[in-house]
Amino acid sequence: MRVAEHIVRKLVDEGVEVLFTVPGEQMDALFGALAKTDIRVVHTRHEQGAAFMAYGYARATRKIGVYTVISGPGVLNSTAALATAYAGDARVLCLASEIPTPLLGRGYGVPHEVPDQLGILRRLTGWADRVGTPDQIDTVLGEAFHRLRWSRPRPVAVEVPTDIWGAEAVDPHGWTDPAVDQRPDPAAVEAAAAVLASAEAPLIMVGSGARGAAAEIRQLAERLGCPVTADMGGRGIVSDRHELAVTLPVAHRLWAETDVVLAIGTRLMRPQVEWGLDDRLKIVRVDLDQTEIDRVRPPAVPIVADATLTVRALLDRVGEPARREGWLARVKQARDDVEVDVARLVPQVDLLRAMRAALPDDGFFVDELTQVGYVSRFAFPIYAHSTYVPVTYQGALGSGFATALGVQAANPGRPVLSISGDGGFLYTAVELSTAVQQRLPVVAVVFNDRSYANVSRSQLRSLGTTVGTDLHNPDFPAFARAFGAHGVRVDTPDDLAAEIATAFERPDVPTVIEVPVGDMPSPWPLIRLPRVR
Q1: What gap in Å lies between CA 121 and CA 119, rounded to an integer?
Q2: Which of 504, 522, 524 is nearest to 513 (CA)?
Q3: Residue 323's pLDDT is what?
Q4: What is the pLDDT of residue 332?
Q5: Terminal CA-to-CA distance of the chain, rounded, Å?
Q6: What is the chain's mean pLDDT, rounded?
Q7: What is the mean pLDDT of residues 355-366?
Q8: Percent of the chain with pLDDT over 90
Q9: Is the separation of the CB atoms in 488 and 469 below 8 Å?
Q10: For residue 174, what pLDDT is reported?
Q11: For the sheet containing 260-264, what is the strand order?
Q12: Is the Cα dihedral 95, 100, 106, 112 positive or negative?
């Protein structure tokens, strides 16, 4: 068996169903092996698109998203998506080619050579290694998939030199998965339960790491009489229809009064770094990653363990439902106050309401860096975990459409709605070719204000003028139709809702809906929230 065949057999054994790629002749052996399997190969028009699709696939399923690229430019073109997968706690596997082993580190300038490619990959992933000799294949693959299964969700990379792909796989060492125990320390759970029981104004904050514990977290929140909030990664873990679900701006209004925070699978960055901390506030922190626990400030109770196992243990120790009528009344008041502020963000709110009305509850919403997208983070209700696919703190402009195609590939038959600005959409709009060829019926809404609007606003505020922010755009509906997709332009929220609903009934055909927009009110007062402690 060749190394490439061994790798593909491992992908099959691990349940990989889809692989995203821009093929290259350096990996002919790999594609020859893939041709003998049922793995779906989605070939894209740019490595950036392939890697963002793998991110979308992984983020929407909590499975492993796999992409392959050639060395040098192929790897470098995919790095923005790798950084996004790192920020978004997504299980992405990058299979990267590398120049031949005898030429590594020589600097001869052979095709596709970059200095220390493996070093680049190691800085953008949770782990990366090279199959330096054929006898290392099982060890490297074994550790890669072990980390993908058991470590904090992060991308990993496996680098294979071109002379290794077709070499005969030999494995004198083998791989044995080390034992993993992700159960919480019972003493820490007891301490956490005691702190929660003593709270008068508790708040639960959840992130990406809590997505597997959605049902348990909802039950715990109800038991505690405690509001639940989330930054981008945890949206939908508790449905926005639930009376205890609050958006981040609402949590900010409550922050000064909160006495106990239960943080589950979240970096807790905004509250700790931006909103402020004081000695009165007790934090119970649950995270699989030991390095995350003490970031910014050591918590009152640290629990390094799996989120689901920990919340189940807390449920066993938390008593009858708490009576916190005063606190919940304060929560309602904060929610009502924020709703008044949000209602002023027109037309963003009207457009978001139209899209929410057209998107079924189980449909996916893929965020992007656009004026409507910024507001969506707190004004677009999410009803199920993993159905809101965030741009993450990386803020990679242009990531949304390609990410949405990966979401669609992972979820055939379920609606996927992508939003972009005119500036961001054209980053990966060429992947309309992929969408049509692969029958990925994503609905892409493009808000066209003919500018990089956020930069324009910033420059006007700081410079009094704008430089390099005006854009010349194509006719977006005609652009879509040129690829064989459906393209349409609408002018009102009602027409937008109608076109989205119609598009979802159009099987296997992607749709681009252009929405011309003008100046919009700034959402930043509800995003850049000031220190309150």
Answers
A1: 5
A2: 504
A3: 79
A4: 96
A5: 62
A6: 96
A7: 98
A8: 96
A9: no
A10: 75
A11: 228-230, 202-206, 260-264, 282-287, 301-304
A12: negative
C-alpha 222/C-alpha 527 separation (Å) is: 27
The β-bridge partners of 366 are 389, 418
Cis? peptide before 347, omega within 30° of 0: yes
Distance CA 117, CA 115 (A): 6
Residue 293: its pLDDT value, please?
A: 94
Closest CA to 347 of 489, 453, 447: 447
What does the pLDDT look like over 484-508, one tens digit per residue? 999 999 999 999 999 999 999 998 9
Instruction: Give CA–CA dist 293/275, Å, rounded.
Output: 18
Q: How distant, in Å, are the alpha carbons of 142, 145, 155, 156 from that of 91?
A: 15, 10, 5, 8
Q: What angle do CA 489, 460, 374 make, to 5 degrees?
A: 50
pLDDT of residue 141: 95
| Number of neighbouring beta carbons within 10 Å of residue 194 | 12
The model carries a pTM of 0.97
Q: Which residues contact 257 (CB under 8 A, 6 or more apart)?
A: 201, 330
- C-alpha count within 13 angstroms, C-beta hemisphere, residue 158: 30
Pick the closest to residue 500 from 381, 383, 360 (CA basis).
Answer: 360
- List residues bridging with 261 in a β-sheet: 203, 283
384-400 average pLDDT score? 95
Going from the C-alpha of 256 to that of each of 231, 299, 421, the distances in angstroms are 18, 17, 35
Q: How confident is the model at residue 172 (pLDDT cuts 50, 70, 90)?
A: low
The tokens describing 136, both together, are: 């290392």
Tokens of 445: 């809404």
